[in-house]
Specification:
This protein is α/β, with parallel strands linked by helices and 247 residues long. It has 10 helices and 7 strands. It has a 7-stranded mixed sheet, sandwiched between helices. Helix 5 runs parallel beside helix 7.
Length: 247
Amino acid sequence: MSLTDINIREKKFHNKLQSQKKGRFENIFYKAIYNSGEDFFAYLKDNIKNSEILDYGCGIGSSIEKTIKYSPKKIVGIDISEISIEKAKKKAEELKIDVDFRVDNCEKTSFENNTFDIVYGSGILHHLQTDKCLNEINRILKSNGALVFIEPLGTNPIINLYRKLTPNSRSKDEHPLINKDLEYINKKFTKTTIKYYGFLTLVFFPFYKSPDRSKLFKLLANIDQYLFKLKFFQLFAWSVLIVAKKN
């Protein structure tokens, strides 16, 4: 497996992260984009039956525990972290699910051209070089295949300040997506849709606990979607759901 210096740094960061017993402090904020996960899995549920799918940057395989229930024909998970893959394999054995987990480089995978119907992931593209990973996804997708990703944005100045003040909480080379990254996706793929999440739901996150049972969260999420129709407010979103088709 060929690795660049950036790949090696990412590999070390995630091996170290998965070796820690405690989760990241930042995990407490993710409830603010709970609805992005709902939309992400809703799309997969409606589209992966009898399909060959790839969990791209699968980590410890958390997403696969859900997607396997949607009856894909075949599911493969890859990650650059050996420790993550070891944990994913162990969990799959415990759950008795059939998944092909591999240590691989997302920017230069070992797959043949036109292998998968759907390539999906959560919080992975911003750890990779945009052109390399998107070109690779395009290569391994079948004709009319789809990519589905949840990714953080790098356009909110307050969130960027927090990132600057907490450099040890993330890898050195990660780069939350900005407009030029989204434009590259638009040029590389067709039927691209980008949905924004996490403005008021993040601002008021101390005022609700479980977003799936919170009327306040649902209200804030609905207001967010109204505001995100305006390009100005899109700059203050925390995250996006990207869905696109191969040319």
